[in-house]
Amino acid sequence: MKLASWNINSIRQRHTHVQQWLTKEQPDWLFLQEIKCQNEQFPKEIFEEMGYQVIVNGQKAYNGVAILSRHPYQLNHTVLPDLDEEEPQARYLEIESQGVTLCNLYLPNGNSGGEEGFQRKLHFIDALVKRADTLLKNKQDCIFAGDFNICPTDQDYAPQTLSSDDALLRPESRNGFYRLLWLGMTDALRALYPTETLYTFWDYTRGAWQRNAGLRIDHALLSPRVAEHLTSFVIDKGERDKEQPSDHVPVIIEF
What we know:
The chain has 7 helices and 14 strands. By secondary structure, it is α+β, with helices and mostly antiparallel strands. GO terms for molecular function: DNA binding; double-stranded DNA 3'-5' DNA exonuclease activity; endonuclease activity; metal ion binding.
């Protein structure tokens, strides 16, 4: 089975990128983040013609997540069950397919909105940890994948790309990532490449791509039984070198 995750940074601007990539890679599931459109604006027909079922949790102009699935599915949640927000942003989508609970997430960056914005990030992390804990206690195979907006260690960002007080690095953010690992989730990339410096995001400014001044913020966390069957993790860097690319590239796991 092959699952991919990609912060596409506007599906309407880059649906051709996704279409071409799907033709090449043929994943069973593709998680998309930052689709930046409402549900009815998502170009479903393009992907349905390719054999994918399309599940969308959109929002006007910002955020938004979607899952493309080759397999039958059951929709579980469009908001994290324990996330207490008056106006929840479109940042989560959970389905069950082929016996696995698949959780697509776009975690708040945490740098905008001052301390209130950072607290919103921490609330999302708390709800994510609770959801993972529930699934693991129920012995449910699961995958949490997407744009976490967290660099777990200093190895996960190029020197001088971020300040020490950036929300992607703050101890509270990193602790949230570790809490998921302490529950029993496995960081798929580090399971296979424990010491390599690898990135999934390169900013559009200051020649970040050309200088390889990147970040590793797109992750896939696996429950124990899924982790036992992990066979590969690939970062498709070639997508970043294309015309009008997303600033993120696809990450692909096979199990």
